[in-house]
């Protein structure tokens, strides 16, 4: 009864257009009043939700990503991708996907990826006669690859939200193959649409130019090695690795490339603070909501519903995928990860699914939610960067959705895609 | 009176921006120091984790409050976009009301939390636990002020000057 | 509503089959039986209503009725709660149980009341020992240069550092990964936790220092307590007391099984002579026994039953 009212209030406030964090918070607060629980408990949950050591990786990774976008690291990665993929039909689409994969490998932030790739590539594509909707479609769907390709602050959020210990190092490795697979699928989609619309072919710049571009990009690409191997070898925790990435990027930008001035630095810091404050306030409000959900025995209700239909691992996983796709249409990744991981993961483990496999499936599903309407932060950001209307963009995005869904189904069906690489490093 | 409110709102929004910068940079320095101390000085300081967490809580809440004034919190505009202008304004006023309710509860309960936990200590820092809750009270109060400003501006048909960009 | 007024909500960070959770369930059964259905308890296990320190605050605020916590978060609230966590305070399990069942235990529980908590009873948490990735801890010197994970508690930080190790306060959930990757070299805990957390897979050397025997505590919200009649208060106190022997039986069995399993697994178990450790931690005692009353409490515990030697359990 109370549970239904709580969900209903949330839906009404969200639809009315109250900011997500405040809709979650106000709906939860009303429930606290209704249940006669002092409201200070609600705000203790808000603070506790944000007061988590591993969540500090979020501001760090976003800050590092914004710095990379502004210090020419991103641009150098685009040059490499241009040399490698530029010759194909609609070559700039391939370049966009390739460069996003490289950028995804050095930054964990889909938002930073959209601003880094989009601000350079979308104008470039428009100038060479590509349609705006295509340019934005490729950019936003490719931006979510960085969530699977390590490092990824969303993986850290998953590990932090998991009720049992999840090895972040193993999770990072598990994302590599699904990330590459999704990238390949997006390249096929980008090529198919480009061929139908008869977009131009690029030219190979020659080995000399390509190798020079590659050499120039090496210091940026080193970030990925430092972070991933630093974590795997136990040199630092994921949170520490993110702080080290910030320092490293500052050094590269200020000393090596000499592209980082005070202006870029403060712009990056401002963007990082905004994103972090936005995400963390939602995480805090989700903390209130989650506490009520547990108190009203929501997880048990949901688990009973889930396993009533079937307790086959793949069936449970597909049901979770469906639920998350629906939820992901309306809500952002981080709060959904925080709210639903403790609910779904125990059920998944109960029916014999590996927490690492399940995590990658959840991450890919929720990442797709970032580019689906009505609420998709990466979709909105990409439209803002590209100066396009979300309605227009979404109309022609389905081949890219199809590529991502096909990848998702493969990842669900074949556990080895995620588990093989971590097992290799054990 | 409204002029005073506007001036206060501008001033605090700018202050929140600078506090956030300082907080983010401070956190980066503290956690990097933790790594440096472990490998170079061979001594792991035990205070760094709690200190940077406390710093994060403070700057995030200030930034989140400023986000109400600057309007950068994520929200759904599907319904709003579908409505005619005069209805739009009613819907927006309703949403300001939701934010105001939350902000007022935040200020009140935040003060209660500070009061109830001031005598508890944060381990490894030795500071009062209430310090972790103080920014909730302050951010709540700021959210109330910013929302009142936005409601007044909404009825008059104006916009606040953006400080963050 | 009336139904909400009746059911006492109780939080526990341990999983549903853990002895403390089973004990509160048992307490609830006794309460329901003896109050003829007027009062009952619903337990929320597995930390779903918050980490220990958070659940404790919520209980003080009146958002939860009961909470089971370890002594560490309580010592940030009341100085007396630090005493039973002092290293090498208890000689053995029997000594610990006698002290907590007796006057010293009453003193500690009563000290919580000004802070909004009614202390109901103590549960066992066994003896904590160090476990490490490779080096056995036979003497305090063996801790030198090792990063040892401790609970987020000043007393534990100060204990490990006084013994010569590097204390690394870290959330429990991050320890497994930290040990696996060598971010920390070791940690310390009792048999059942060492087993259930699977930390033994990453840190297979268990050195039986048995340095701390800090108990767990069941507390009730004073806000709820004040709304109860005298009879109901007495009834709740009695049911809590009666759940203690039940808890100890479950605990002993579980501890025995965990030890058996770990001995059968490839865990290297060593038994150091603790005399050198006892000498070395003296400064920790001085640091925390800051008032005459705290000194008296520690002395009362130390001298308890010293004349007739209690057998080890
Ligand atoms: Na990434
Ligand atoms: Na979406």
From TrEMBL, chain A:
The way it spans or sits in the membrane comes to: Multi-pass membrane protein
Q: What is this protein called?
A: TRAP transporter large permease protein
Where does the TRAP C4-dicarboxylate transport system permease DctM subunit domain start and stop, copy by copy?
8-417
Keyword Repressor applies: no
Q: Which organism is it from?
A: Hyphococcus luteus
**What does this gene product do?**
Part of the tripartite ATP-independent periplasmic (TRAP) transport system.
Which is an annotated GO molecular function term of this record? transmembrane transporter activity
Q: Where in the cell is it found?
A: Cell inner membrane
From TrEMBL, chain B:
KW Chaperone (keyword) present: no
**Which UniProt keywords are given for this protein, alphabetically ordered?**
Cell inner membrane, Cell membrane, Membrane, Transmembrane, Transmembrane helix, Transport
One GO MF term attached to the UniProt entry: transmembrane transporter activity
Task: Report the InterPro entries cross-referenced here.
Answer: DctQ, TRAP_DctQ
Q: Which residues form the Tripartite ATP-independent periplasmic transporters DctQ component domain?
A: 27-155
Per the annotation, which location comes first and is thus the protein's main one?
membrane
The UniProt entry's GO biological process terms, in alphabetical order, are: C4-dicarboxylate transport
What GO cellular component entries does it have? plasma membrane
Does the keyword Nuclease belong to this entry? no
Q: Where is the signal peptide?
A: none
Q: Where located?
A: Cell inner membrane
Residues crossing the lipid bilayer are 15-36, 51-69, 90-111, 131-148
Q: How does it sit in the membrane?
A: Multi-pass membrane protein
Record's PANTHER family? 2,3-DIKETO-L-GULONATE TRAP TRANSPORTER SMALL PERMEASE PROTEIN YIAM, TRAP TRANSPORTER SMALL PERMEASE PROTEIN
Q: Which family does it belong to?
A: Belongs to the TRAP transporter small permease family.
Q: How does it assemble?
A: The complex comprises the extracytoplasmic solute receptor protein and the two transmembrane proteins.
Please explain the role this protein plays, according to its UniProt record. Answer: Part of the tripartite ATP-independent periplasmic (TRAP) transport system.
Name of the protein in its database record = TRAP transporter small permease protein
Where does this protein come from, organism-wise? Answer: Hyphococcus luteus
The record lists the lineage as:
Bacteria, Pseudomonadati, Pseudomonadota, Alphaproteobacteria, Parvularculales
């Amino acid at each position: 009864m109370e549970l239904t009212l709580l969900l209903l209030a949330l839906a009404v406030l969200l639809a009315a257009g109250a900011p997500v964090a405040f809709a979650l918070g106000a709906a939860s607060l009303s429930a606290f009043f209704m249940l006669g629980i002092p409201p200070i408990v609600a705000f203790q949950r808000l603070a506790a939700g944000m007061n988590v050591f591993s969540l500090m990786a979020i501001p760090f990774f976003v800050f590092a990503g914004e710095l990379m976008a502004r210090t020419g690291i991103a641009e150098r990665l685009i040059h490499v991708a241009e040399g490698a993929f530029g010759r194909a039909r609609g070559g700039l689409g391939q370049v966009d996907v390739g460069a996003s994969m490289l950028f995804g490998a050095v930054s964990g932030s889909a938002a930073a990826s959209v601003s880094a790739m989009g601000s350079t590539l979308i104008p470039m594509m428009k100038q060479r006669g590509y349609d705006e909707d295509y340019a934005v479609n490729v950019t936003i769907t490719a931006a979510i690859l960085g969530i699977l390709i390590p490092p990824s602050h969303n993986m850290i959020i998953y590990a932090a939200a998991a009720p049992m210990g999840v090895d972040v190092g193993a999770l990072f490795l598990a994302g590599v193959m699904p990330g590459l697979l999704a990238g390949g699928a997006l390249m096929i989609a980008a090529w198919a649409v480009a061929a139908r619309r008869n977009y131009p072919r690029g030219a190979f710049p020659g080995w000399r130019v390509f190798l020079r571009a590659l050499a120039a990009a090496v210091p940026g690409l080193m970030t990925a090695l430092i972070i991933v191997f630093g974590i795997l070898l136990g040199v630092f925790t994921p949170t520490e690795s993110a702080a080290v990435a910030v320092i490293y990027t500052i050094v590269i930008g200020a000393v090596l490339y000499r592209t980082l001035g005070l202006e870029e630095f403060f712009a990056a810091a401002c963007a990082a603070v905004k994103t972090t404050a936005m995400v963390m306030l939602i995480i805090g409000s989700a903390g209130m909501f989650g506490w009520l959900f547990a108190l009203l025995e929501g997880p048990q209700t949901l688990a009973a519903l889930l396993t009533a239909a079937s307790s086959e691992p793949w069936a449970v996983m597909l049901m979770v995928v469906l639920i998350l796709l629906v939820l992901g249409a309306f809500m952002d990744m981080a709060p959904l990860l925080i709210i639903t991981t403790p609910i779904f993961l125990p059920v998944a483990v109960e029916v014999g699914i590996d927490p690492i496999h399940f995590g990658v499936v959840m991450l890919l599903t929720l990442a797709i939610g970032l580019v689906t309407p009505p609420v998709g932060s990466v979709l909105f950001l990409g439209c803002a960067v590209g100066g396009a209307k979300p309605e227009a963009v979404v109309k022609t995005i389905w081949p890219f959705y199809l590529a991502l869904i096909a990848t998702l189904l493969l990842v669900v069906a074949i556990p080895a895609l995620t588990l093989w690489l971590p097992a290799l490093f054990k | 009176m409204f002029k005073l409110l506007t001036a206060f709102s501008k001033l605090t929004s700018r202050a929140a921006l600078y506090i956030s910068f300082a907080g983010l940079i401070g956190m980066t320095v503290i956690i990097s120091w933790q790594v440096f101390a472990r490998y170079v000085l061979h001594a792991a300081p035990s205070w760094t984790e709690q200190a940077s967490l406390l710093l994060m809580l403070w700057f995030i809440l200030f930034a989140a409050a400023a986000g109400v004034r600057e309007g950068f919190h994520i929200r759904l505009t599907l319904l709003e976009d579908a409505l005619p202008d005069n209805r739009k304004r009613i819907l927006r006023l309703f949403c300001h009301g939701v934010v105001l309710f939350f902000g007022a509860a935040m200020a009140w309960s935040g003060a209660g939390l500070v009061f109830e936990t001031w005598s508890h200590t944060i381990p490894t820092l030795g500071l009062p636990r209430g310090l972790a809750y103080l920014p909730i009270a302050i951010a709540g109060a700021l959210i109330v002020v910013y929302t009142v400003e936005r409601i007044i501006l909404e009825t008059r048909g104006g916009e606040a000057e953006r400080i963050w960009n | 509503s009336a139904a909400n007024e009746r059911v006492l909500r109780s939080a526990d960070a341990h999983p549903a089959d853990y002895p403390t959770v089973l004990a509160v369930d048992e307490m609830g059964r006794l309460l329901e039986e003896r109050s003829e259905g007027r009062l009952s308890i619903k337990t929320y296990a597995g930390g779903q209503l918050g980490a220990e320190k958070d659940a404790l605050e919520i209980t003080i605020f009146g958002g939860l009725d009961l909470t089971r916590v370890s002594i560490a978060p309580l010592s940030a609230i009341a100085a007396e709660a630090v005493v039973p966590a002092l290293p090498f305070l208890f000689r053995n399990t029997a000594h610990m149980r006698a002290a907590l069942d007796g006057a010293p235990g009453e003193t500690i529980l009563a000290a919580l009341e000004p802070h909004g908590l009614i202390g109901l009873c103590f549960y066992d948490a066994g003896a904590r020992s160090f476990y490490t990735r490779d080096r056995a801890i036979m003497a305090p010197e063996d801790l030198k240069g090792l990063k040892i994970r401790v609970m987020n508690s000043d007393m534990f930080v100060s204990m490990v550092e006084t013994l010569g190790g590097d204390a690394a306060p870290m959330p429990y959930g991050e320890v497994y990964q930290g040990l696996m990757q060598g971010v920390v070299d070791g940690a310390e805990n009792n048999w059942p936790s060492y087993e259930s957390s699977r930390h033994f897979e990453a840190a297979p050397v268990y050195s039986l220092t048995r340095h701390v025997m800090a108990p767990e505590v069941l507390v009730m919200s004073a806000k709820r307590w004040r709304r109860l009649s005298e009879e109901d208060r007495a009834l709740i106190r009695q049911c809590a007391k009666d759940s203690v022997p039940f808890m100890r039986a479950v605990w002993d069995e579980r501890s025995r099984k965990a030890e058996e399993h770990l001995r059968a697994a490839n865990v290297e178990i060593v038994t150091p002579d603790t005399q050198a450790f006892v000498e070395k931690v003296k400064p920790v005692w001085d640091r925390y026994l800051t008032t005459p009353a705290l000194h008296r409490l520690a002395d009362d515990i130390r001298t308890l039953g010293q004349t007739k030697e209690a057998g080890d359990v």
